[in-house]
């Protein structure tokens, strides 16, 4: 191996690591901010019968699928669609309705006494109760991760602003596939690290809580989702003035 090949390999590895690291840190910072996906992860992890500590992984898998699609769209030049005020408002309304329904379902089920909580008192973690959420899509963590992600218009806005700027700055394209791989893998790694921590703490931590504390957390999360859904529904109209 001659010196030119060594230098080229060093440059490629260095570039890959720089893009991966920056993408990881940016994603981790965003993931740690409170939002509907974080709340959804806490609830799904706490209500899982078994292996709830892996719920964050499945939710981010769905989240990553949608992000892969939007990255492809941005690279193909469709960013203008997500800057259209009508598109932003439509996403805001639909997302707000979904999150409002999600939060209202949580609060309603708590007051009806139907949350899946028997695993808190069961040493084997088995639960024969009915699912907490009526919406079949939200019951599946992968599909739920996709839906909750898409329901947040600020996720779309993040991608056509910060995400697109990152893509432009680091010359990420289909042609530079290593840069693209570093960007995508780093971004999803940042999400996975945080959401796995959240799901582990939620799954194991809530096993030692009494029912009243558990219900209190569910109600808090449900109210947060309701308020956030209302905010997402009206904020695009306020910004458009």
Topology:
Blueprint lengths: L2 H29 L4 H12 L7 H21 L9 H28 L23 H4 L1 H10 L2 H17 L7 H29 L5 H29 L2
Helix pairs in contact: 1-8, 2-6, 2-8, 2-9, 3-6, 3-7, 3-8, 4-9
Question: What is the count of helical runs?
Answer: 9
Largest sheet: none
Give the structural class. Answer: mainly alpha
Work out the number of β strands: 0
Strand content: under 5%
Tell me the overall shape.
flat
Strand and helix order:
HHHHHHHHH
Oligomer state equals: single chain
How does this model look, in words?
With 241 residues, the protein is mainly alpha-helical. It has one domain. The protein is 74% helix and 0% strand. It starts with a helix and ends with a helix. Mean pLDDT is 79; it is low at 116-134.
Provide the descriptors you would attach to this structure in a database record:
mainly alpha, flat, 9 helices, 241 residues
Question: Could you give a short description of this structure?
Answer:
This protein has helices spanning 3-31, 36-47, 55-75, 85-112, 136-139, 141-150, 153-169, 177-205, 211-239. It is an all-alpha fold and 241 residues long. The protein has one domain (3-239).
């Amino acid at each position: 191996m001659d010196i030119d090949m060594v230098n080229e390999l060093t440059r490629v590895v260095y570039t890959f690591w720089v893009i991966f690291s920056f993408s990881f840190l940016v994603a981790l910072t965003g993931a740690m901010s409170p939002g509907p996906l974080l709340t959804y992860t806490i609830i799904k992890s706490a209500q899982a019968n078994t292996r709830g500590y892996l719920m964050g992984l499945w939710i981010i898998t769905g989240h990553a699928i949608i992000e892969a699609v939007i990255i492809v769209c941005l690279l193909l030049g469709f960013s203008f669609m997500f800057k259209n005020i009508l598109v932003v408002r439509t996403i805001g309304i639909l997302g707000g309705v979904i999150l409002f329904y999600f939060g209202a379902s949580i609060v309603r089920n708590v007051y009806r006494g139907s949350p899946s909580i028997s695993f808190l008192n069961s040493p084997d973690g088995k639960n024969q109760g009915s699912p907490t959420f009526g919406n079949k899509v939200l019951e599946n963590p992968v599909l739920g991760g996709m839906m909750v992600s898409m329901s947040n218009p600020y996720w779309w806005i993040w991608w056509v602003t910060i995400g697109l700027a990152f893509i432009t700055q680091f010359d990420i394209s289909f042609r530079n596939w290593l840069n693209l791989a570093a960007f995508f893998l780093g971004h999803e790694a940042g999400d996975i690290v945080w959401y796995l921590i959240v799901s582990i703490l939620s799954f194991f931590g809530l096993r030692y809580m009494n029912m009243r504390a558990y219900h209190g957390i569910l109600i808090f999360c449900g109210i947060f989702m309701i308020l956030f859904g209302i905010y997402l529904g009206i904020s695009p109209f306020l910004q458009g003035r």
